[in-house]
Design goal:
- This protein has about 400 residues and is α/β, with parallel strands linked by helices.
- Helix content is about 30%, strand content about 20%.
- A hairpin with a 4-residue loop joins strand 9 and strand 10.
- Helix 5 (about 135-150) packs antiparallel against helix 11 (about 370-385), helix 6 crosses helix 9 and helix 9 crosses helix 11 (about 370-385).
- The longest helix is centred in the last third of the chain and has 20 residues, at about 370-385.
């Protein structure tokens, strides 16, 4: 178990404002990443933890701690078994600035809707990916979130950590702001994740079993959402039509690989493939890295970004110029994609959320519109894999 200092942290400093944060969901990822990182971050104070169970459980970690133990570990913060009660206390006594939502994928809509519509104090929100697992819910939550941000100047961020990396910000600048590769014609993308153990274990129901209106569950929702979010962030493309083939684990029924063609509004194509059958384990010690390959081809050049996300020197962001020459961008940073390091004070996405809570300038690597595009695409991928036909993306 991770050992952290349990001395209560004072949120009053002479020059720096501290973000007062509640974490909703105390499962595997919260206990292994979000909570300890928030505790170590000098800009945050954990004031409440909320979960539907006093003793959270997870097939990924049989030794999760109870809410009472977590309270003692993190400064004697308040704990709640009811989201309604947490939100009722948001202004007083908690004086919340923001909430981090880390609950099962299919719960995101109801929780996000309740925070936006029913909380007496308007809060900044960082929500785990994917945005939702239902296209209708994604449309509704996007409408609520965009109004929430515009009306109250509150952030609604999605925790696609790769999008907040410096390389992603520079790639977006090169492609969308500076137009270095011209009009986008084609994108080739691949993601290989060493997470077979996750999708073949029947105990990991939140990752493998569809709930509600979901047509399937597995690698596409759990992993491909990352690479799709990066592509839409960097390129700004709008998905219109999808053809997709998937195959599934014989034990859990979860999809474990896919090949998809995504036609976008400007008639550019995305060729997307991915699999969780990469040997090894992403959460072993040392971890086995995910393999990422993204190639964006335009009328004036191309952007290439490929590598192993645990080996910084395995790749770099580069532009291929019309004459065939290469121009490296942020060469000294090498290759970074998702930020899943559990040590330290959190990924760039968490720091952006805390900056928003502290009324500082913050990066927006993934907002509700980007979340919607990702869900639109994944929804069409699942429908196509069942119909064996090209499927139109559900539009707003």
């Amino acid at each position: 178990k991770m050992q952290v200092n349990t001395n209560e942290r004072n949120d009053q400093t002479s020059q720096r404002r501290i973000a007062r944060v509640a974490v909703i969901g105390a499962g595997w990822w919260s206990q292994g990443w979000h909570l300890p990182q928030l505790w170590r971050n000098e800009n945050s104070k954990i004031v409440a933890i909320c979960d539907r169970s006093e003793k959270p459980t997870s097939g990924m970690n049989p030794d999760l701690e109870s809410l009472s133990t977590l309270s003692k570990r993190y400064g004697n913060c308040a704990t709640y078994l009811s989201l309604d009660k947490l939100l009722a206390d948001a202004a007083e006594p908690l004086q919340l600035d923001g909430v981090l939502v880390c609950t099962p994928h299919a719960t995101h809509y109801e929780i996000g809707k309740k925070i936006i519509e029913e909380c007496p104090k308007k809060l900044h929100i960082l929500m785990e990916k994917p945005f939702t697992t239902c296209i209708k819910e994604a449309i509704l939550l996007h409408q609520l979130a965009s109004s929430h941000s515009q009306t109250y100047s509150k952030a609604f961020l999605i925790n696609h950590t790769a999008n907040y990396r410096f390389q992603a910000l520079e790639a977006k600048k090169a492609v969308r702001d500076l137009g270095l590769i011209g009009d986008i014609r084609h994108i080739s993308a691949f993601m290989g994740s060493p997470l077979k153990f996750l999708f073949e274990n029947p105990e990991n129901k939140d990752w493998n079993e569809p709930t509600g209106t979901m047509l399937g569950n597995g690698f596409a929702w759990g992993q491909s959402s990352h690479i799709l979010a990066w592509i839409f962030f960097v390129t700004g493309m709008d998905p219109m039509r999808v053809f997709c083939s998937m195959n599934h684990n014989e034990i859990t029924g979860a999809d474990v690989s896919h090949a998809a063609t995504i036609v976008c509004a400007n008639n550019a194509n995305i060729s997307l493939s991915g699999t969780t059958l990469l040997p090894g384990e992403a959460h072993s010690h040392p971890p086995v890295g995910k393999l990422i390959r993204i190639e964006v081809f335009g009328s004036k050049g191309a952007l290439i970004y490929s590598g192993d996300d645990t080996i910084k020197t395995s790749g770099q962001l580069e532009i291929r110029n019309p004459d065939g020459s290469k121009s490296a961008i942020a060469q000294d940073l090498g290759f970074n994609f998702e930020n899943t390091v559990s040590e330290g004070n959190g990924p760039e996405s968490l720091k952006a959320f805390l900056d928003a809570c502290r009324d500082e300038d913050f990066a927006i690597g993934a907002d509700s519109l980007l979340g919607l595009k990702t869900v639109q695409t994944l929804d069409a991928m699942y429908r196509s894999s069942i119909s064996l036909k090209s499927e139109e993306v559900v539009q707003v």
